[in-house]
Amino acid sequence: MAKKGRVARILTTLHRVAGTPMSEALKRRQRSAVQRGDAGTHSGTVSQWRKRKDRQRRREQFEGAAKETGLPHGYHSGMRILLVGEGNLSFALALTTLFDGDGSNLLVTSFDRQRIARAAYPYCEDVEESLTAAGAAVVFDVDVEEPDALRGVAKRWWAAGDDDGGDNPTGRGVGPGGHFKGFDRVVFNFPDAGVGVTPPLSVKANQDMLGAFFDSAKGLLKRNGEVHVAIPEGSGSTHDRASAWNVTGVAARYGLVYRASLDFEPGAFPGYEHYRTLPHESLWGEEDGHAGDGGLLNGENEGRVEANDDDVAEGAKTLVFQVDDAPKGGKDGSELIRKGKTWSLK
């Protein structure tokens, strides 16, 4: 039987140094390595042990950020944060509360139209007013699956800081102005396409939505910025969405690498309430009472949307991603290997 791993490499080296013939088993192993394309690269590639240690170190780094700032998930008011898919806006309000009432670096977007959100979610209008008073910008009707929608909102918010007075003499709810430098964090809490939980329709719809989000978010991050996606871990209708939707796999397809998984504890975000996502508008039938709004705008939203803290209480995780900045290889398909701090073609 062929020797494996480190022992095989040592024996091969000894045979070469001594000039003695290698066993047939070692020769077969070398031929296999050549066919796989990894022969002689053990000194330049990262071992599985090192990869595990690096992942552990990164997790500890992200988890330790909370201790440095004293706030959950390492948030602080100096971060420029883009919130995506906010429903009742309570997570945005929680951040401004943690930031001592300062929301000037927050850009908050919601998929719902403003009138739909106000009719569906209790106190949504009051929360919106509180956010704008704190200096945050709140933008409704932003669909992450619409090409360039998120990017357009972000760029306009950023550039609005260059305006002298104009329509916004207070300067509130505008970005920093100047050259776009990217966000420290782009956050999408509990994404849900609103098409129910029956696979494969729900899986495909949510993967498509996440793919569009990751594709947009990647181009809106500053260097070393982070994408945060909160996913419930409960049973029943929310059974293991991270695995069912293959969230990390979808992120990888769009150039983002998984860094860490943080516990999402609602109590750490003051005033946060998790609400069920509104059904997709295509599912609103005539029996809902009003075409185009499902009865929401006539006060007929009983049971349309409700608090669903059980989903989060059963367990939730925030998955952390960053842009994958490792080179992918040469134009001829040759593989790149790492040697110290540099990359070279095999």
Automatic annotation (TrEMBL):
Transmembrane segments: none annotated. One of its GO terms (cellular component) is cytoplasm. Residues 21-70, 286-306, 324-346 are annotated as: Disordered. One of its GO terms (biological process) is rRNA base methylation. Residues 82-276 form the 25S rRNA (uridine-N(3))-methyltransferase BMT5-like domain. GO terms for molecular function: rRNA (uridine-N3-)-methyltransferase activity. This is 25S rRNA (uridine-N(3))-methyltransferase BMT5-like domain-containing protein. It comes from Micromonas pusilla.
